């Protein structure tokens, strides 16, 4: 299966369904990366595991792309400033997933989402997670 075409087609449908998230995703260069567990971005490239994305339904793929685009839109890639990468990623995921849910996306059951972080920037969520004992933090 041509996964790059699958991703391009999914982004096109995302633009139609959710242009606020779809259009920014078009700025990301698509790159297959079997070493990537799911999907990730550095603000320029959207890496994806080709085996993972073909297992998703179209709506789930759109949500995953919107999730990565939202990280870029919120500047998460550029705001870490030496913070612990794992905790920062979790904090940013809480923030992104809140935005996605508020915009009608259906989140995966294991998505990091908690109303106690509603309206908080990633830095504030990070501080709260950092003060949480490691054995009580979410795992990704």
Which helices and strands, and how do they pair?
Layout: H1 3-17, H2 19-25, E1 29-32, E2 39-41, E3 45-48, H3 50-55, H4 58-73, H5 85-102, H6 122-130
Parallel strand pairs: 1-3
Antiparallel strand pairs: 2-3
Helix pairs in contact: 1-2, 1-4, 2-4, 4-5, 5-6
Describe the protein:
- The chain is mainly alpha-helical and 140 residues long.
- Helices cover 51% and strands 8% of the residues.
- It contains six helices and three strands, in the order H-H-E-E-E-H-H-H-H.
- The chain has a three-stranded mixed β-sheet with strand order 1-3-2.
- Strand 2 and strand 3 (45-48) form a beta hairpin.
Question: Keyphrases for this structure?
Answer:
three-stranded mixed β-sheet; 140 residues; 51% helix; mainly alpha
Could you spell the SSE succession in H and E letters?
Answer: HHEEEHHHH
Mean pLDDT: 95
Uncertain stretches of 5 or more adjacent residues: none
Count every beta strand, where a strand is a DSSP E run of 2 or more residues: 3
Label the structural class: mainly alpha
Gross morphology: globular
Spatial order of the strands forming the largest sheet: 1-3-2
Task: Please give the count of helices.
Answer: 6
Oligomer: single chain
The share of residues in extended strands comes to 5-15%
Largest sheet: 3 strands, mixed
State the helical fraction: 40-55%
First-to-last CA distance:
28 Å
Q: How many whole angstroms does the radius of gyration measure?
A: 15 Å
């Amino acid at each position: 299966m041509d996964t790059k075409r699958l991703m391009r087609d999914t982004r096109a449908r995302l633009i139609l369904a959710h242009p606020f998230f779809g259009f920014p995703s078009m700025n990301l260069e698509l790159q297959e990366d079997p070493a990537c567990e799911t999907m990730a971005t550095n603000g320029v490239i959207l890496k994806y595991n080709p085996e993972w994305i073909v297992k998703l339904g179209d709506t789930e793929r759109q949500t995953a792309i919107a999730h990565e685009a939202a990280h870029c839109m919120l500047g998460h890639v550029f705001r870490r400033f030496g913070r612990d990468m794992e905790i920062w990623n979790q904090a940013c995921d809480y923030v992104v997933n809140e935005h996605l849910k508020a915009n009608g996306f259906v989140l995966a059951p294991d998505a990091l989402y908690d109303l106690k972080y509603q309206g908080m920037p990633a830095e504030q969520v990070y501080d709260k997670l950092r003060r949480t004992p490691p054995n009580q933090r979410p795992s990704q």
